[in-house]
Amino acid sequence: MTSEYRKRAVVTGASSGIGYALSLELAAQGYDLVLIARREQPMRELANRVDVLGRAAEVVVLDIADTECTVATLRAIDRARPVDLVIANAGVGAVRAAATASSWEAMGPALHTNFCGAAATLTALVEPMIERGRGHLVGIGSLASMGPLPESAAYCAPKAGLAMLLECLHLDLLKKGIKVTHVRLGFVRTPMVAKSTHPMPQLMEVDDAAKRIVNKLAYMPAEITLPEPLAFATRLLGNLPRPVRDRLMRFAGSRGTT
Ligand SMILES: NC(=O)c1ccc[n+]([C@@H]2O[C@H](COP(=O)([O-])OP(=O)(O)OC[C@H]3O[C@@H](n4cnc5c(N)ncnc54)[C@H](OP(=O)(O)O)[C@@H]3O)[C@@H](O)[C@H]2O)c1
């Protein structure tokens, strides 16, 4: 009798929002999970819900901004049992107070977590995945990576860096059997945006977004953009002549909108 092969996914930022919802959706699709974040309690609750779905979930408390520790931890997880899918989702939101938005105090935490932490998560298992000739790396990015937004340098810049990292990984790893997917999201109702007073056009509910992402991930595309109409408008905005775009952005900034 042959035993069923159980796919294994690592999800960072699994204690809340999109990572929590993605983990549940992946469990429903048959994945065993490794849940990573700094807060243990919500991940324990999630692990119980995964258990009810008949899948295994391991909880790992980790600050991904500690990149050396992140790489070592992911490699140990993979040595214990190979990982098929890595989702670099953990992230922090933008500091939007006009006076501090362009300061190092705003920039530092976002760079360490949203770029360096995500890069460590995405690259830690490249070598073992190349040896196996398979694997899927997924970065949760943002439509904010498509162009500058007012008072959002700390959020846009690391997400733009993540976008380029994923493009390069896609180029280099495709021929080695590893698929790379960049998920660019618009607004999703999660704790990250709960206190936002800014307009959030085409706001998605988190369970709906997670379901749509996981359904699309099954095809391992290079890019997933949600919602598509907002992505289209963002692309158009990014391609406007610079003086027009600058004027529109300054207007949006003066009204406190993105
Ligand atoms: N919500 C949106 O509208 C939206 C739009 C586009 C993209 N995104 C992206 O989606 C991802 C998830 O965001 P969300 O909306 O679900 O936010 P969220 O509810 O605030 O969740 C963020 C998750 O990241 C984890 N995290 C933050 N810093 C971490 C660190 N240093 N080490 C380990 N884990 C860390 C948090 O867990 P702990 O606090 O327990 O560590 C939490 O689980 C982010 O990358 C975000 O940029 C969100």
Unreliable segments of 5+ consecutive residues: none
What's the tally of helices?
9
Helical residue percent band: 40-55%
Instruction: Record the strand order, biggest sheet.
Output: 3-2-1-4-5-6-9
Radius of gyration, in Å, reads 18 Å
Main sheet characteristics: 7 strands, parallel
Instruction: Give the overall average pLDDT.
Output: 93
Strand content: 15-25%
CATH class descriptor name: Alpha Beta
Instruction: Indicate the CATH topology.
Output: Rossmann fold
Number of domains: 1
- What small molecules are bound in this structure? NADP nicotinamide-adenine-dinucleotide phosphate
Our measurement of the CA-to-CA distance between the termini, rounded to an integer number of angstroms, reads 57 Å
Number of strands: 9
The H/E string reads EHEHEHEHHEHEEEHEHH
Can you name the CATH architecture?
A: 3-Layer(aba) Sandwich
Overall morphology: globular
The CATH fourth-level homologous superfamily: NAD(P)-binding Rossmann-like Domain
